[in-house]
Amino acid sequence: MNYLSKYLSILIIVIIFFIGGDIAVNGVWVGNLGNSNTIFNKKLGLDNSTNKFLQVKIVPSNSIKASKYAFDGMQIQLLSDEYTVLQTATIKNGYCQFNMNDVKKNIDKFILISPLTSDEMVVDKNISFTSFVLDASDLFIKQKSRK
Q1: Which residue in 26, 125, 37, 35 sits closest to 81, CA to CA?
Q2: What is the C-alpha to C-alpha distance for residues 73 and 64, in angstroms, rounded to an integer?
Q3: pTM of the prediction?
Q4: Half-sphere exposure of 86 (CA within 13 A, CB side)
Q5: How far apart are CA 107 and CA 78, in angstroms?
Q6: Is pLDDT above 50 for 77?
Q7: Residues 2-31: pLDDT tens digits?
Q8: For residue 5, what are the CA distances in angstroms to 1, 2, 11, 146, 147?
Q9: Cα gap 90→104, rounded to integer Å
Q10: Which run of H or of E encompasses 145?
Q11: Is 121 exposed, middle or buried (0-12, 13-18, 19+ CB in 10 A)?
Q12: Could you say which of 20, 74, 102, 126 has the lowest number of CB atoms within 10 Å?
């Protein structure tokens, strides 16, 4: 009986270290190793947590004729409702993307702003895709005058 209890206790310890070590190596659940529901949901494939992104399509206003690549390299800032900068993204191929998992504050509405053109837009926290209209006619006039 003594050997059986030693064998079972070693087997249980190995299983616990296997599950915990596997999750710790993945790096996602290191902070949740004390929560048994999180561990077993992850091992069983029932974990539905995903990265949440806010993808913004940049649309030129009607006053200018520009392709979607005209704004490439410009920056768009994601601000809280108190106008503090949370993230900055660079436009590429007419789109920019913000990782909402990095935003730790509980904010109901965000503000998208273009520092170069001073256009801004209010966005709800639960939205994942939006179009942001930029009126950069002043910028394009300055670019044409420099040539």
Answers
A1: 125
A2: 18
A3: 0.58
A4: 23
A5: 12
A6: yes
A7: 888 888 888 888 777 766 555 554 444 445
A8: 6, 5, 10, 84, 85
A9: 21
A10: helix 137-146
A11: middle
A12: 126
